[in-house]
Input
Amino acid sequence: MKRHWRVTGLALAFLLAGCAAQVAAPRDTEPSPSASAKPSATNATTDVLYIQGSGSGADARIAVIDARTGTVVRELPNGVLSRDRSQLYTTETMKGGTQTQIRVLELASGRETRSFTIDGYFHTLFDYYAPVGPAGDGSWLVLTGDPIKLDDKYVTRYAVVNTLTGAASSLELRGDWPYEFVAVSPDGKRIYFTDLSASSQPVGIRGFDLTTRTLAPAPVAGSAWNKWQAGGWRSGIVTSADGRWSYSVNTGTEEPSFILALDAVNDRAQRIELPADQSAGFEKAMLWSLVPSNDGKILYAVNPAIGAIDEIAVPAMTVRRTAHLPVSRADSGALAALRQAVFPVADAKRLLRSGATLSPDGRTLYAAGERGIAAIDTDTLVESAVLAKDASYDTLALSPDGERMYVITPDAWSTIAIIRTRDGSSAGGFRLPWYPGAIVRVDLGR
Output
């Protein structure tokens, strides 16, 4: 699989900074009396955001931001959230890298509730920019060590930690390429990886038995595919609430796209073929998103850039319905041409993580396309509206009441835009001095 890297063009930063100085009104340094009494007209919200990506590397943090002003009110250590988003798991290296301490914090208060220490150097896991939280049934935290190359082989290390007891099992794998994490079985006894090592063989998902300490000699049944034909891009992995199923869209140029569904209970996998007319080139293929319904009985696969949405029945794993959406197209004007010429990577390479989300009542699916956000009625699979159609977005996060959507704009400004879901109007926005990795939680303001 190819890795997605965001490259920041310094020339564009200076170019756009000069333009912004002419067109962007500065934010008032002193609030007016009316602004202190109610939300400003710029940001009409009192929500609180938790945004990952402040700083870099070991110094990265989670910023807690007042959405009304865009002000960082406090910071938390970097880490991953529990399934219910109430707890934060962070790691800290100890004793010269020979041990790792795992701290469990209350996300809302930052208070540490417990901690435990395991042997070896590990840190929390990310799938591109998106944090990978507890796996399996939600009580297993997967940590990773940085892959290293030793004697022409990559050495990949992982640890599976029980978040309740602190018990841990670690493993080390060697191959021509690093092994990429896919899933953990609900009971925590098996961990699954994408095996890219055998370049002349079909790619597959292999399981490692943590009880017998053995790597399965062959890929999980049904998980193999030809990486040269279908291995163009993989969407973010989505896991069912009980930890049994893990899904990803796999796309290429020489055969139809498909969803690979891994059954971590029965140690098998199957391909769910998507309609042939839903294949596309790499850039549009990167805009696939998967979203499970609130009851877990349906999986939605959506890509507004190619005008496709599919409804997959779970656990039958069949495409029950499919529909065509009006294709969302990227801007082709002079400004877009200039931006593409000076800052090509941002526009040309958008690999979505959290590119779609479901409303709290499950009736509307929101999905990012090349431009704008499609609002899709889940009863009919008909696009009811396109929100904020003049821009592109990488990440969607809804307020708990579903009234506001917070989106990351993939531009040089690191902008968080706020969109009212009722009519698509703007509720404001703000810029960050760093590029946000993910909006991990939104709390209703008081």
Observations:
- The two ends are 45 Å apart (CA to CA).
